[in-house]
Design brief:
Length: 220
């Protein structure tokens, strides 16, 4: 994390010695100059920044491989939200968006993939999260894509919300209260059988892998 703050500090231009302005001009006015220690820090940071910037085009190419990305951003370990070159930033993918909060929570081990659904203009969109952390290289954390939804296995939006609640461990009483429908073990089993699963745990495992659920944080 400390390295992330260090890198971001230089990328945002808060150090005049890097961008030729700000603090650098102040140093000339006061007669101060960079110490050998400062020069050594800059020497170590420059290659790191070059590698970080090089990864963004690669992530853009990865985004285009899906063939249906409606927008994308890259999250950093420090919480920033960066645009992906050549791809639009979807209106849902803005700083402090609840979607990005859920995406950060879903990001798993380096290389992991997770996906979930989100209500959008009377329909649904798919959010795909690809963890791209490489702590030996840079501060980039995860690629977040907005994509269309092709198949929901016949599950209705209300059922997708209930599945999201079940995956978060909500009990039947809380699901009934928040979703406005009576919910119990019998209805859960009926739903599992209708979708083609023998048990409720098997259904939950299947929808978690397929990303066919709406997390409670994204309910309208």
């Amino acid at each position: 994390m400390a390295r992330d703050r260090h890198v971001c500090r230089y990328r945002t231009g808060t150090c005049g010695a890097w961008n030729g302005g700000g603090r650098g001009r102040s140093s000339r006015r006061t007669g101060r100059s960079l110490t050998p220690e400062h020069s050594d820090v800059l020497g170590r940071v420059r290659p790191l920044l070059a590698r970080a910037l090089d990864r963004l085009p690669s992530l853009a190419a990865l985004s285009r491989l899906t063939g249906d990305a409606l927008g994308a951003v890259v999250l950093t370990c420090g919480g920033r939200c960066l645009p992906v070159p050549g791809l639009p930033r979807h209106p849902f993918l803005v700083p402090d968006s609840p979607i990005l909060t859920v995406a950060r929570a879903c990001a798993g081990d380096p290389g992991a993939r997770s996906t979930f659904l989100c209500p959008a203009n009377g329909g649904l969109v798919r959010i795909t999260v690809l963890d791209c952390r490489d702590e030996s290289t840079d501060h980039l954390s995860a690629l977040v894509l907005v994509r269309p939804v092709e198949d929901t296995w016949g599950l209705r939006p209300q059922e997708l919300r209930i599945l999201g609640a079940q995956l978060e461990g909500w009990d039947d009483e809380r699901i009934s209260s928040c979703c406005g429908v009576p919910w119990n073990a019998s209805r859960a089993e009926e739903q599992a059988h209708r979708v083609g699963f023998g048990t409720v745990p098997a259904l939950l495992l299947g929808v978690a892998r397929a990303g066919l659920y709406i997390p409670p944080a994204l309910w309208p």
